[in-house]
Amino acid sequence: MDTIVGIINYIVFFAITAGTYGILSLGLNIQWGYTGLFNIGIAGFYAVGAYTAALVSGPPPGAWDGRIFGGFELPFLVGLLAAAVVCGVVALLVGIPTLRLRADYLAIATIGIAETIRLVLKNESWLTNGVWGLQQIPSPFYDPIHRGVARFLGGHPDLSPWVHDLIFKSYNWFYLLLVLGILFILYLIMQRLVRSPWGRAVKAIREDEDAAAMSGKNTFSFKIQALVLGAMIMGIGGSLYAHYARFISPASFKPLYGTFLVWVMLVLGGSGNNKGAILGSFVVWGIWAGTDFLTGYFPFSATQAASLRIIIIAILLEVILLCRPQGLLQREKRPPTILKKKA
Amino acid sequence: MQILSRIPQLLIYGVISGSILSLGGIGVSLTYSILGFANFAHGDFMALGAYIALGLFTLTAGLGIPSTPLGPLSFGFGFILSFILAMGLTALTVVLIDRFLFKRLRHTSSIILMMSSIGVALGLRNVLQFFWGPQPHYYIEKIQLAIVIPGVGVRIKPDQVFIIIAAIVSVGLVHYFLQHTKMGKAMRATADNMALARVTGINTERVILWTWVIGATLAATAGILAGIENKFITPELGWQMLLSIFASVVLGGLGNPYGAILGGMIIGLSEEVSTAFISTGYKPAVAFIIMIIMLLIKPTGLLGKRR
Asked: How confident is the model at residue A255, as a pLDDT?
């Protein structure tokens, strides 16, 4: 029974993380999948979201903290929105100088901003507490849920230990519902959006920017909007991570690995398809977690195992690009309703 | 005044780091102009070269090839032999990566190639990390004393003079190749217009092959020189310089190898001089900000003509 409880708890943990990645993947999908913007600074936006949420909703600096700012203890949702807004502003600043140019410039600039953000997190202790990071970030509704669980368990002392164990971890179930709920809401919004005139315009830009400009679309403005929107979604992902992990530091946001994983998720799931983006995040996170078990069977050191896992994901990406560039789920081909009626 | 007195010394460091950035930048620039994509694996080609040299150096020592220091330098014949062989082996590896991967993706878009190069970058870096671990490895552990240049009071080590000379020689060879050899001219023609070059009978596949060979050779050179300058190498060596290299290339004009040299020098100097005023940790950010300012003023770069 203990193993089963262990497995169930692991699945919950797995789904929370995969769901958070699903949000990042949705954000990237609006940028890359629908608009064709090559953002490789995802880890930077994710970190900005997490830090913003932690500073807005977290406790004020403690006696040993190096920072002198932040910790307003505002509600979870306020932190979530602040994370989205701050990420949007950062994206705007990156987009303005680069989105008039070829795609390569945006790629270089986003990786630059991700690296710069990491340096700021590490060096500006007054704001971020440097390498020690931010601690004791509150999880939303943790106290009422935990109190309720404790009261329930106190009233039922005769439960078998494994049921007791399972109920004791109920908070994770709640957090899973929260993550999946936000993922679902974002999915619905994105689906509406990509089928709207706005969505058709960005898809036209993806296919042929000059043609879109010729038909009177201000492509620069649409691209900025898509970049900002995607970054805001990534910020929401970051805030969910901060409230779940409860501790964040610059080391949590290795510049390229997080970004790379999200890219592989979207490319594998099928860029330009929101269902694919979410599917990809669960599949790739499954592979990523699976390789963790797999490398455990070999006599590798911890760093060797970590390297091997990244090599496996890198090979996976190249194989997808070579053999199935459209990903698992193809782009949705939806003829406009007017055409449908005629046919 | 304390700050200003440090500047001549920082300029020397800037020239050294600028030399290394320029060599890296030429490769990025050539790949961009011929193949049309920003190669994110270039930094890791540098690290690959540095590690191949390390492996060969250990091998030459094992074979009993003498490596007594040459003159004032801290390394000798065995190391220089490893250096040259590593350039060749890096080029070979890169050509193989092209045959198995990039060549097959060439019919797709430049963005797919760029994405694929990110996969290669992480893959290569972790192969190095798998075999050698993340900890630093030293070429030569001996500490070398700097020479004080009389009059100006700046200090420079013999190894650093070697780095600058090696960079000047490499740049000179690239210049000669591009301007005076048939393949160099074919390369410039292909960069201008690949379809037109093909029509006039230029074997563009050969041009692409040479692009990788030159880019990889220079990357290995830059990686090994960075190893000599830092005294140690890590698998992250190339990645840590990649942002500065991209900034150099964009500053000089993406796709123009001469721009990469100029940009590399400017970025190298600015990064080093900036340490007199702000935290050393912000070096890559300095490069990034210079790049953004350039993009706002003149996106084609200092020497760039067209988009």
From this structure: 62
